[in-house]
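Anyone opening a protein record will find just a pair of labelled lines. With that in mind, the following record should read easily:
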Amino acid sequence: MNAVLAQLEPVRRDLAANVRTASEVVGRCARSDLVVFPELFLSGYDLEVVEDFAVDPEGDEIAPIREACARASVAAILGYAEALACGGVANSAVFLDARGNVAGSYRKTHLFGEEKERFVAGDSLTPVELAGRRFGPMICFDVEFPEVARTLARRGTDMLVTISANMEPFGPDHDTAARARALENGLPHLYVNLVGEVDPNRFTGNSQAVDPEARVLLRAETEPPNTRPDLV
């Protein structure tokens, strides 16, 4: 599989700008199978206003990204604030297939700190079929719990994927966890993290692709790769 780790800094409080960026990146990756964006990429990790940027993955707000996937024939995994039909907001990942259709979604089950006051926690751990693989999705804090990845593995996952907004001083925690979850389950693991700053947080990057033996095949360090495709 050719996967692009889109380690980027979103524009704070500008949904339209982040949708444009995601659409442009997808459009430049037509020779890839998959593009993975970090946690809450569309809104930025700004918990004070996350409710203002909550969207429906089938709605008009992210239609340009779905259309970009269809034009480029590439799948995407994207972190966003999901407006729930029953009220409230979830910290979610949407899975878009190469025709621009919503293939599945995941809602973060392990909320961290103030997230517990802002989001409705997910209650399901289910693999999502995309680009010929069965992905086991996790979002940020989820990756620190071995039971999450193990449950996904037992349910038929053949590749783990974590989208994250991990910040200082917790960078080493996720560097270890990304490799440990791969090794424990004998599965490849794609880990994609934010970069940049939203006061008081500085995001640590270090997006990486890990093989089933915990060997790092690619690491993006702490700065955005100027949106060029990083393939694994």
In short: The longest strand covers residues 75-83. Confidence is low (pLDDT under 50) at residues 225-232. The domain at 3-219 is CATH 3.60.110.10 (Nitrilase/N-carbamoyl-D-aminoacid amidohydrolase).
